[in-house]
Specification:
Blueprint: E1 2-5, H1 11-24, E2 27-28, H2 36-43, E3 47-50, E4 55-58, E5 66-67, H3 73-81, H4 87-92, E6 99-102, H5 109-118, E7 123-128, H6 131-143, H7 149-157, E8 159-162, H8 165-170, E9 177-182, H9 193-201, H10 209-218, E10 219-228, H11 233-236, E11 240-242, E12 249-255
Parallel strand pairs: 1-2, 1-3, 6-7, 6-9, 7-8, 9-10
Antiparallel strand pairs: 3-4, 4-5, 10-12, 11-12
InterPro entries: 16SrRNA_methylTrfase_J (IPR007536), SAM-dependent_MTases_sf (IPR029063)
GO molecular function: rRNA (guanine-N2-)-methyltransferase activity
Protein name: SAM-dependent methyltransferase
Length: 262
């Protein structure tokens, strides 16, 4: 990975970039007047641009920037604070004190909502296979100021683990978390500008029978999956699907006792 700074930088920003560069064992390059594209061509590698307020990640050969932002979790958190309905919280039956393992954390939008729902006495761990995306999200959760104290606290509580979800699940003991959650890349493409950059860096791993067996072993209560309404995964595995007529994605749930039928 190549690590550099934003166009406007000072010594403090350089030091921050150098610290992150050491963490990812990357190569630091002084920005000077060079474009991101020229840095990408130089090493045919990921480029992490360190700015004052955020980190921006570019995949090799892509000009789509990826940066941390709470995205839809912002208004979903506000809804929860008003004690309104959230479909994921309802499907997962999340309550204060529960533990959640988000196996496809991405930019952590769902993880933030889960963290708020389970509160201080609960916990949310997010799994991300791409180490550079994991770094981006970890730093974002640590530093982003949403102006909502409850949301800030929920973000700070989330733990990000760099791993693939099957390995992460195999490391865990039986019934060690209440809910295991998946939000895999949809088989059908959704035209969403917010997902364009993420698609260039996210791990495109599928959900297999082995993964679900491990998830049901680890889950104390249930496994939940968010997917496109036409996904073949809802037919391939014994999910009870909560259909949402106004939405292009549904939530599927396998309760713990369903493991015996797989």
């Amino acid at each position: 990975m190549i690590v550099t700074t934003a166009g406007k930088f000072n010594e403090k920003l350089i030091q921050k970039a150098l610290t992150l560069c050491e963490e990812v064992q990357g190569t630091f390059v002084y920005r000077k007047n060079r474009s991101i594209a020229s840095l990408q061509e130089q090493g045919n590698d990921y480029v992490l641009m360190v700015g004052v307020e955020k980190l921006t990640l570019y995949a090799p050969g892509s000009n789509e920037p990826v940066f941390f932002h709470p995205n839809s979790s912002m208004f979903r958190v506000k809804q929860l604070l008003r004690r309104e309905h959230d479909p994921l919280v309802a499907a997962a039956q999340l309550t204060t004190g529960m533990t959640v393992l988000d196996c496809t954390v991405g930019l952590a939008s769902d993880a933030i909502v889960c963290s708020l729902a389970v509160g201080e006495t609960g916990s949310v761990t997010g799994i991300e296979k791409n180490p550079y995306l994991a770094l981006l999200v970890r730093e974002g959760l640590r530093a982003w100021d949403s102006s909502l104290p409850e949301m800030n606290e929920a973000m700070r509580r989330i733990v990000i683990e760099t791993n693939d979800h099957l390995t992460a699940l195999k490391k865990r003991e039986d019934a060690s978390v209440d809910v295991v959650y998946f939000d895999p890349m949809f088989e059908q493409s959704l035209d969403s500008p917010g997902l364009a950059g993420l698609k260039t860096v996210a791990a495109h791993t599928t959900i297999t029978e082995e993964v679900l067996h491990e998830a049901l072993r680890v889950a104390k209560c249930r496994v939940v999956m968010k997917d496109h309404y036409a996904s073949s995964r809802f037919q391939a595995f014994p999910f009870h699907v909560y259909k949402r007529p106004s939405s292009k994605f549904h939530y599927g749930v396998i309760e713990k006792e369903a493991r015996r039928t797989m």
